[in-house]
Write a structure and sequence with these properties.
Radius of gyration: 22 Å
Number of domains: 3
CATH topology of the largest domain: Uridine Diphospho-n-acetylenolpyruvylglucosamine Reductase, domain 3
Helix content: 25-40%
Distance between the termini: 22 Å
Structural class: alpha+beta
CATH class of the largest domain: Alpha Beta
């Protein structure tokens, strides 16, 4: 597999233009290579198109709280630049030493803080991209109050490089918070967690993340974050950000709001340990050497029962409680046919509740025997029409979308 790493957007556009008029090879746009599983079928004639050298700061009016950078900039470098002005992009991105901002947007990456801080749809206000024929197109602008034209920015989020290759990104940013504090809530059952989630919907506090774990995941999280908290019952974890005074008030309020017989204990994790814990949860989707990793999406009210089912199958799963997202790793001590059966059961469970289940990673033979994208959705026909309009020859990331 060949690779081309242009040093500028113009060189990238020239490469795609020449390819569309000449060899017409299939092209896989990549950034930090942290989500290669989304490339689709690997063909020996395909070319990797890496944006990692397009990583310059184009414009940073810090007072306006916006920044424009090359799409190949590492997210860790972006965080460092923003931190110098006491600002941040509050989206948790795994492998941030390798991941690029363009790649994170293309894969619609988000982490625990999406509950309180939002996703890329809330921060991407402008972009420049190049289509399969080497034509540059723009959307949005470099100011927050920009509503001209169609919102192509949102169309590119999660497109996985199948519609165009991002070259320039404009983001709005936020002031960096002083402290992060996690609260470890040990519960009697998953039913208790469900009740607490309902209470949190009317909470006077403003959590940035709410997580819950199966026992298998809880043991991993405690070991990886090097903390010592109870893991013998279902756990709910709530994160807050702010000044010491704000955190003191919010945690005190949380204790009074969650006064329930099903709550065994409420313990503060501490600032430094909370940062480690957030990092562990951000990296959790990277399951390492496991047979398969899935992401299930469902109504938030169904998450607790889904976790209970995962527990019965010894699945290591973490739930983004307020967003209805569960990420799980299959255990490696069950056979291949049992793994397929469990994944099919999980998929049916989520689909019956109006959700879906996709594979984030999988080993053979599961990778080729099951659908990575879950069951077909009504929106796929619209997505296919858009794909055919912007990339009629199917040169960009073939196989990287569910409707091909």
């Amino acid at each position: 597999m060949t690779e081309f790493s242009p040093v500028s957007a113009k060189e990238l556009a020239r490469f795609l233009r020449d390819n569309s008029k000449g060899e017409r090879a299939q092209v896989f746009p990549v950034g930090g290579r942290t989500s290669l599983q989304f490339l689709g079928p690997q063909q020996t004639t395909a070319a990797l198109l890496s944006t990692h050298q397009i990583a310059n700061v184009i414009d940073y009016p810090a007072r306006d709280m916006t920044i424009t950078v090359g799409a190949g900039m590492r997210t860790s470098d972006l965080s460092e630049i923003l931190a110098n002005e006491n600002q941040e992009l509050p989206i948790d991105i795994s492998h941030n030493q390798r991941a690029t901002i363009g790649g994170a947007i293309s894969c619609n990456v988000s982490g625990p803080r999406r509950y309180g801080q939002g996703t890329f749809r809330d921060y991407l206000i402008g972009m420049t991209a190049v289509d399969a024929e080497g034509k540059e197109f723009h959307a949005g602008g470099r100011v927050v109050k920009n509503v001209a034209g169609y919102d192509l920015c949102k169309l590119m989020i999660g497109s996985r490089g199948s519609l165009g290759v991002l070259t320039e990104i404009t983001l709005k940013v936020k002031p960096k918070q002083d402290h992060l504090e996690a609260v470890w809530i040990n519960c009697e059952s998953f039913e208790t967690i469900d009740l607490l989630c309902e209470k949190m919907l009317n909470s006077a506090t403003r959590p940035v993340a709410m997580e819950a774990f199966t026992p298998a995941a809880c043991q991993f999280v405690v070991a990886d974050a090097r903390i010592n908290f109870p893991t013998d019952h279902p756990v709910m974890l709530v994160f807050y950000e702010g000044t010491e005074k704000e955190l003191l008030w919010q945690i005190g309020m949380l204790r009074s709001e969650l006064d329930h017989p099903g709550v065994r204990s409420i313990e503060e994790v501490g600032d430094e340990s909370s940062i480690l814990l957030l990092g562990t949860l951000t990296e959790f989707p990277d399951g390492g050497d496991v047979p398969a990793t899935f992401q299930a999406n469902m109504r938030p009210s169904r998450v607790a029962s889904f976790l209970e089912y995962c527990t019965s199958r010894n699945i290591s799963a973490v739930a983004r409680l307020g967003n209805g997202i569960v990420i799980g790793h299959l255990p490696d001590d069950i056979g291949h046919e049992a793994q397929k059966s469990v994944l099919n059961e999980l998929s049916a469970h989520t689909h019956n509740d109006g959700g879906n289940l996709i594979l984030l990673n999988a080993e053979e033979p599961i990778a080729s025997e099951l659908s990575w994208w879950g069951r077909a959705e009504q929106s796929w026909s619209v997505m296919k029409t858009i794909k055919e309009s912007l990339d009629p020859s199917g040169l960009l990331n073939p196989g990287g979308t569910p409707f091909e």
